[in-house]
Write a structure and sequence with these properties.
By secondary structure, the chain is mainly α. It has helices at 5-26, 31-49, 51-58, 64-78, 82-97, 101-108, 114-118, 121-131.
Length: 137
């Protein structure tokens, strides 16, 4: 499937958002990097799937707990509580995107350097417990 130009920009924004969030965490929860990462991640996600589908995704009744926690975490980062905000965001992120975790683990197991590492006996057991064995596809 080909991506439109808008979706390509969205992928770039999402990648930069994740990068800035990781840098913000590495710099001991720097509020500036975390805020920029949040804005880029959310705008990239919106450009990838569209405004209407983004609103539908975040307003599904079964995902409302994750949505509230994620956006509460974003607000907490903006109001200078970065550690609590990232913890809240992480909980919301897992609740929102946890369904995709088996797909991501299945993909990572096929990547040349990461795959053999994830298939080691001790690590494989932990990854299987976290992601679940069954893939939805």
């Amino acid at each position: 499937m080909w991506l439109t130009d808008t979706q390509k920009i969205g992928v770039g924004l999402t990648a930069f958002g994740v990068f800035f969030m990781l840098v913000g965490i590495l710099f001991f929860f720097d509020r500036g990097f975390l805020s920029i990462g949040n804005v880029l991640f959310l705008s990239g996600l919106t450009l990838i799937i569209g405004v209407a589908k983004t609103l539908v995704f975040f307003s599904r009744p079964e995902k409302i707990r994750g949505t509230v926690c994620f956006f509460l975490g974003v607000v907490l980062v903006f109001v200078k509580w970065p550690f609590v905000g990232i913890c809240c965001e992480l909980f919301g992120f897992v609740n929102l995107f946890g369904d995709f975790l088996p797909v991501v683990v299945g993909f990572l197991r096929k990547v040349p350097l990461i795959g053999p590492l994830l298939n080691l006996p001790g690590i494989s057991f932990v990854v299987d417990k976290l992601a679940g064995k069954a893939l939805p596809v």
